[in-house]
Design a protein that fits this description.
Keywords: Ribonucleoprotein, Ribosomal protein. The chain is mostly helical. Helix content is 52%, strand content 0%. The longest helix is centred in the last third of the chain and has 33 residues.
Length: 130
């Protein structure tokens, strides 16, 4: 959608559209948009009726130069930075992943209740001072 390609049209030119996508980080979306625009620029669209080409179709010169590609057209290259080996620190050894996840979940669950209690306690302090 950000690349300016309609879902139905994308399927007709060989782009798979997955409506279940959940990862919407800006980095991956920008990378996808860049990749789709590059694909679209390299693509040569033949008109359905050769006598009446439409707006999105390729020009006659491009159609003459067109060749059929076989194999992977534009493979996705995932670049991973390898981390160098290092000594595990004492903090990392003592870190308890499950306990910290449970704590984070409990803090998220009790956030509203704790805020309400703190507010009530502050109001009681104000009343005691009077």
């Amino acid at each position: 959608q950000l690349a300016g390609i309609n879902k139905k049209f994308a399927r007709t030119i060989g782009i798979s559209v997955d409506p279940r996508r959940r990862n919407k980080s800006t980095e991956s979306l920008q990378a996808n948009v860049q990749r789709l625009k590059e694909y679209r620029s390299k693509l040569i669209l033949f008109p359905r009726k050769p006598a009446m080409p439409k707006k999105g179709d390729s020009s006659a010169e491009e159609l003459k130069m067109a060749t059929q590609l076989t194999g992977p057209v534009m493979p996705i290259k995932n670049v991973f930075k390898r981390e160098k080996a290092r000594v595990i620190s004492e903090d990392e050894k003592n870190f308890k992943a499950f306990a910290s996840l449970r704590m984070a979940r409990a803090n998220a669950r009790l956030f509203g209740i704790r805020a309400k209690r703190a507010k009530e306690a502050a109001e009681q302090d104000v009343e005691k001072k009077k």
